[in-house]
Design a protein that fits this description.
- With 129 residues, the chain is an all-alpha fold.
- It has one domain.
- Helix 1 runs antiparallel to helix 5.
- The longest helix is centred in the first third of the chain and has 25 residues.
- The two termini are 32 Å apart.
């Protein structure tokens, strides 16, 4: 499953780089944005994309343990969108111990020890930070 996810996020990354490069060669981002902003469907699609970016960032903010990486990933996600999100997932997948279950990617680093020792992660709520 880990290898499949690496292939999926690599494909997303390469696809987004390709389509972004092609669009950039065709027309300037700011020129296109000024023209497209009048279209209601463009605004709706843009809002949908950015709400998706914020949703992904909420998980990143939970997953990262210090403010600097959180801030840097927020800026990267808001500026690069799915390119940054695919890079984040590839970093997490590559750094993940292949013997851990894939769902360990969703957890904070301090929960990883439970997988190494075979202990289960407590299901009781953790205090808010």
């Amino acid at each position: 499953m880990r290898l499949l996810l690496i292939v999926i996020f690599s494909t997303i990354l390469l696809g987004m780089i390709w389509v972004t490069t092609a669009a950039s060669l065709e027309r300037n981002l700011f020129t296109a944005g000024a023209e497209l902003m009048a279209d209601g469907w463009f605004r709706a699609t843009l809002a949908d994309a950015y709400f998706g970016f914020i949703t992904f960032f909420v998980w990143v903010a939970y997953r990262e343990t210090s403010w600097l990486p959180r801030l840097l990933w927020l800026v990267a996600i808001l500026l690069l969108g799915n390119i940054a999100m695919a890079i984040y997932m590839l970093i997490r997948l590559i750094r993940c111990n292949p013997e851990w279950p894939v769902y360990s990617l969703l957890l904070r680093p301090e929960h990883f020890g439970a997988f190494e020792t075979g202990r289960s992660v407590p299901l009781t709520p953790v205090s808010d930070r």
